[in-house]
Amino acid sequence: MPDKNSILEEMNDRSREVFRRVVEGYLENGEPVGSRTLTRVMSEKVSAATIRNVMQDLEYLGLLDSPHVSAGRIPTQQGLRMFVDGLLEVGDLDPSERQKIDATVGNGGDMGGLLDRIGSALSLATHGASLVLTPKHEAPIKHIEFVSLGPERALVVLVFGDGHVENRLFTPPPGQTPSSMREAANFLNAALEGKTLSEAKSAVSREIEARRQQIDGLARELVESGAAMWEGEGDFGERLIVRGRSNLLNAQESEDLDRIRSLFDDLERKRDIAEFLELTEEGEGVRIFIGSENKLFSLSGSSLVVSPYMNADRKIIGAVGVIGPTRLNYGRIVPIVDYTAQLVGRMLTDRR
C-alpha cells in the first residue's frame, strides 16, 4: 500500500474534504460521521450516495472505518496519523490559557513544587492527563549539614546555589557523635563547593583518598554513607509527575478502563520514565504519538502529545506531555504543550 503522503497527494479535492470533515467531526464529538451530515457541510453540493462512495474508497485505503453496519465512519489510527501529519491546522495559544499557565509559574517556590503545579495547570487546560518528567537537580551545592535524630537516624540537609533545599533521612554508621558529624559536614562543604550532585560522588572519593589520614575514622564512615545515599534512586533522581488521570478515565469507554488503569500504574511505578524521555530526543518541538505507534502507551489506545524542554546548554533534560483519547483536539493541545515546554526551559535557565 502506498505511504500516507502519496495517498493524500493523490486524493482529489472531494475525497480530501470528505476525509478531513469525517476526522474533524469525530475529534469534536467522538461519534461516527454519516453521509447525510456531510451533505450539509460540504463546500460543493453533492448527494449522500456520492459521499458514501467516497467513504467506501477511503475505507478501502485504510483511512476510515465503520464501527457498526449502516453507521457513519470514524478515522482509523492510520487515518488519524495522516490527518495530523498533512491536514492538521494548529491554532495559536489562547491568551487566557497562556495567562493561566503563566500565573502558575508566578507563584514561586522550589522547582519541584513549580513543576507539580505546571502539571496540574496543563491537565486543567487540556482536559487530559498531564505528564511532567522533572530533571535531576543539577544546581551547584552551596552547603551541607548533618543533623542527628537519634542513634540510628540522621538527616542530611543540602542547600543548592539556586536556593533549592533537599532534606533526606538516612541511617548513619554506628558511634557517630555531634563532633564527627560537624567534621564530616566541614569536609564535604570544602570538597563539594560549586559541584553538582552528579559530580559529588567522584569528588568525595578523590578527596577521601587524598586526605584519608587527615580525617577521623568515624567522620570518614559518615561521609562515605552520605556519598552512597546521593547516588541512589531517591528524591534526587528523575521524577514523573502525573496529574489529571481522572480526565482520561472519564473520557474512555468502560471496557478500556482496566487498560487505562494499568497504564497509570506503570507510570506511577516509574517503569517507563526512560522510554518517555527517549520519545522526545529525536529533535526539538512537539511530537504526537497515536495509539500503538507508541510502545509506552500502546496498551491504552491513547494518544500522547509531548515536547522536550532544555537547559541553558540546549540539552534535553525533561519533557512535558498530555495523554488523552485518540480523539484529542490536537490543533488546540499542540500549542499548549509547546508553550509549556518552552516556559519550563526558560524557568530552568533563569534559575541557573
TrEMBL record:
GO terms for molecular function: DNA binding. The keyword Iron does not apply. Residues 13-78 form the Winged helix-turn-helix transcription repressor HrcA DNA-binding domain. Keywords: Repressor, Stress response, Transcription, Transcription regulation. The keyword Repressor applies. It comes from the Bacteria. This is Heat-inducible transcription repressor HrcA. The gene is hrcA.
